[in-house]
Amino acid sequence: MKSSGHQKVLFLSPTEFPNLDGRVAIITGGNRGIGLETVKGLCKANVTVIIACRDENSAEKAIKEVKEEFPAAKVDFMKLDLGSLKSIQTFAKNFKEKGLPLHILINNAGIMCPPYGTTEDGFELTFGINHLGHFALTNLLLDELIKKYYSALEAYNQSKLANVLFSYELNRRLKEKNCPVTSNAVHPGIVNTELFHGLPWCLKIPQDGLIYLLFKTPKQGADSSLYVALSPEIEGLGGLYFVNSSPSQSSEESHREDLQKKLWKISCGSLEFQNDSNRTVNLLA
Predict the structure, then answer these.
(1) How far apart are CA 111 and CA 124, in angstroms?
(2) 198 band by pLDDT with thresholds 50, 70 and 90
């Protein structure tokens, strides 16, 4: 959107700041200027803030100013010199040792047009601080940022898809080699086992209430595996997906041959299986 030749700026009003209590942010150069105002905005949203900068005195003054405006602010200082790779590594190590999550990283600090100089590690000063320092910091903290996106339930769902993809691909490879061994995937249904102990509390509550109405016992859950393993009707049949002891249609994604092959390749690479096609036959010999 443009008005009078200038770009229109959209912003949150003070009443629109979300309550992000529990979130943690690191901001470089949060001790003055734009950085300090950013710290205030984060504190307004109840974010726990770590000011990362070189000057502890300046940071303490900034923290005092923030707390005068937001008495309940959770803001702290950690020393960081973006012109020193050693300092950056120490900062990342010290932050990880705090055991805090990391939801937001704001690479704010910077310098402009200083006399020629170099960083502690010999890089041109401006490029070293404005870019390389933040590049190093971000990469050292990237795993911490990624952790906040981890979903245990999504990871479980992906692993179950992988089980079916693997079963189909294994059966295809065995069939290509005229091997009499077959591979099938089995879904036992919803069974009351210890697997559910890892569920988030919000999912455990409905699970606890429905357990006797909808869930199978472990003995009932074993029926599907036993049927596929022992029934003469299944002898020689492969590449199938069974639910409650009946052949069923698995998800559309599970039938994608490109995903089946991709998973096989990733799995062999992860386990450092060099000759994966022969490895299958050797394992089953």
Answers:
(1) 12
(2) low
pLDDT in tens, 107-145: 999 999 999 999 999 999 999 999 999 999 999 999 999
User: Percent of the chain, pLDDT > 70?
Assistant: 81
Return d(Cα 185, Cα 8) in angstroms, integer. 57
Whether 149 has a pLDDT exceeding 80, the answer reads: no
- Residues found in the chain: 285
Q: Compute CA distances 155 → 9, 91, 148, 189, whole Å.
A: 39, 30, 13, 19
SS3 call for 72: coil
- List own/partner pairs for 62-71 with CB under 8 A and 24 or more apart: 62/30, 62/31, 62/32, 62/36, 65/36, 66/36, 66/39, 66/40, 69/40, 69/43, 70/40, 70/43, 70/44
Helices of type H across 76-115:
85-97
Catalytic residues: 156
